[in-house]
User: Which sequence fits this backbone?
């Protein structure tokens, strides 16, 4: 059996690895010249936080996302399972109570508990939610690990493959009875008219003065922000959500909001070096839920929205089942959003 | 029937479109609310002109009148530019005018508001100004050409309900003929019912619905509260009294002591 995967973002690479490991002859085509070029996965936070995401996402996101906590450590040893921490400043205490009401599988920590987990946050917050089972990873290292795994399986990613190369490969695959797995994200709007873009902005900063070991979410009624440790004193600060399909540069307002939230978490962020400013556009369907959708001979895996690394493992499993005729997954296969949400 | 500018409306509930978990849930909430007017923020929801096409086409498909707003604008110039953008994108001369004076409370800058209203009314816009309950500001806005006023209940997103009942009642009494829409600060359906009971013509809700655990369910609850409040206003509520008044007369009853 043969399959061609279009797109080497997290969805494409996860699908390709899943298929290759099940014995399918896979070819991955990426229009970018190198890993991460032009794909929004490159700017992801890399939080594996199925239960935190329940705050605003449907139950199916938690159900599918929970699979990622076993999948990623098996594919990428750099995956860290240290939980996540959710805090709010004193006057936003109501936000923390609301977050707690809408999520599950957490424990309340007092000031002492916070200090025990993250000594540099000691004395800064009187209460926090701790989601012990969640994890995080460095998205770029994780993508590289998947690409390396594919190379080891004899299916290296072919970069710089434009429309012409893709068309030729598709014809060859079809002639050989293969399936096309389209994981192009927003680029697939030519085939999926209901896709839209949601722009995100992020920063990477370096500050050796303090150390955080796990993602910290700072709740705020207008500007909720998360900070994810990337190791070696680097931290990712993200991410805005703007209804826009243009990966334009960051606005001053977003920059102020992201840095302001980080500074409020700990004043040491005021001394941080700004290493990188990134923007990307997430592909989303109207219900902000992912789909594995078969259109003719093509299987589309798309709409991962802000949950790329969280949901890619489950979607890759479902896409592989679909290609191999091994199953049907109503929770994401169904095009009707209400049914998918209730699944 | 409610009449805002020259549009007649059955629903007295206006719904904001920001901060829903997804556009699908927004669509469900709009349906459940029965609203005929949705507001949409151009500045905060998109990265600039033309960039938010995906979201805007969803807004257009909601089947309600679109009221573009200038949320997040801090100056007259910014608000005027955003109003023009709204007119171009949605093909409407309506604009919900917000000029924010201060970030902590999102309190309107009423001086900038009056100035922007004057510019926009002259330019053919039908302006829905987001203002305080201040009577003199209201007068100035009407002089500028506004024919609808949108006084706040309490600060945007605070969910604290009608903060200054005296001021809001005074505004209603002073401008009996002007459509008044309570905008901002409504947290729960009883707040909305109260506004309608006091004779306000409509309410505008966003956060209370979009941030509810079940936005569509909450939108339906608000629709009922608004209908109840309006029906109560039209039915003529009783005046509160200081003493108990028995609903059954005692005179003439048999004395069984």
Assistant:
């Amino acid at each position: 059996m043969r399959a061609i995967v279009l797109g080497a973002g997290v969805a494409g690479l996860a699908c390709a690895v899943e298929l290759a490991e099940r014995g399918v002859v896979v070819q991955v085509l990426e229009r970018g010249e190198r890993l991460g070029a032009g794909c929004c996965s490159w700017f992801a936070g890399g939080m594996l936080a199925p239960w935190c995401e329940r705050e605003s996402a449907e139950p199916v996101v938690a159900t599918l996302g929970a699979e990622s906590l076993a999948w990623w450590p098996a594919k990428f040893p750099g995956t860290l399972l240290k939980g996540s921490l959710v805090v709010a400043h004193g006057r936003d205490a109501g936000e923390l109570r609301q977050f707690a009401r809408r999520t599950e599988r957490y424990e309340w920590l007092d000031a002492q508990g916070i200090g025990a987990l993250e000594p540099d946050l000691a004395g800064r917050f009187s209460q926090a939610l701790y989601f012990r089972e969640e994890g995080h990873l460095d998205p770029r290292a994780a993508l590289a690990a998947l690409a390396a795994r594919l190379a080891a399986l004899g299916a290296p990613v072919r970069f710089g493959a434009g429309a012409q190369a893709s068309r030729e490969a598709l014809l060859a695959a079809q002639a050989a009875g293969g399936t096309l797995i389209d994981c192009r994200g927003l680029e697939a709007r030519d085939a999926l008219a209901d896709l839209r873009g949601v722009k995100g902005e992020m920063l990477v900063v370096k500050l050796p003065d303090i150390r955080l070991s796990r993602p910290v979410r700072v709740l705020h009624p207008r500007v909720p922000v998360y900070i994810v440790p990337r190791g070696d004193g680097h931290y990712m600060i993200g991410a805005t959500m703007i209804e826009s399909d243009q990966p334009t540069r960051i606005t001053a307002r977003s920059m102020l909001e992201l840095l302001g939230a980080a500074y409020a978490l700990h004043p040491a962020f005021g001394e941080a070096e700004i290493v990188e400013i990134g923007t990307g556009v997430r592909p989303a369907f109207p219900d902000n839920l992912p789909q594995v959708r078969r259109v003719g001979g093509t299987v589309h895996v798309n709409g991962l929205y802000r949950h790329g690394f969280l949901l890619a493992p489950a979607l890759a499993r479902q896409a592989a089942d679909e290609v191999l005729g091994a199953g049907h997954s109503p929770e994401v296969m169904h095009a009707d959003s209400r049914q998918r949400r209730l699944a | 029937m409610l009449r805002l500018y020259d549009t007649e409306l059955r629903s007295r509930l206006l719904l904001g479109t920001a901060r829903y978990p997804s556009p699908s849930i927004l669509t469900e909430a709009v349906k459940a609310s029965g609203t005929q007017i949705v507001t949409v923020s151009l500045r905060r929801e998109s990265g600039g002109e033309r960039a938010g096409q995906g979201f805007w086409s969803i807004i257009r498909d909601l089947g309600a009148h679109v009221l573009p707003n200038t949320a997040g604008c801090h100056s007259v110039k910014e608000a005027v530019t955003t109003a023009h953008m709204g007119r171009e994108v949605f093909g409407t001369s309506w604009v919900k005018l917000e000029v924010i004076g201060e970030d902590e409370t999102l309190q309107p800058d009423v001086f900038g508001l009056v100035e922007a209203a004057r510019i926009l009314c002259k330019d053919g816009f039908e302006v829905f100004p987001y203002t305080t309950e201040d009577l003199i500001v209201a007068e100035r806005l009407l002089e500028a050409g506004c024919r609808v006023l949108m006084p706040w209940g309490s600060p945007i997103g605070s969910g604290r309900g009608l903060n200054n009942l005296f001021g809001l009642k005074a505004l209603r009494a002073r401008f009996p003929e002007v459509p008044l829409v309570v905008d901002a600060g409504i947290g729960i359906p009883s707040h909305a019912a109260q506004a309608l009971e006091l004779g306000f013509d409509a309410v505008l809700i966003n956060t209370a619905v979009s941030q509810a655990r079940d936005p569509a369910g909450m939108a339906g609850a608000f629709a009922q509260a608004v209908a109840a409040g309006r029906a109560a206003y039209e039915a003529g509520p009783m005046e509160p009294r200081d003493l108990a008044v028995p609903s059954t007369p005692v005179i003439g009853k048999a004395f069984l002591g």
About this structure: The radius of gyration of chain B is 20 Å. The CA atoms of residues 69 and 96 of chain B lie 4 Å apart. The interface with chain A takes residues 21-25, 27, 45-48, 50-56, 58, 157, 211, 213 of chain B (CB under 8 Å).
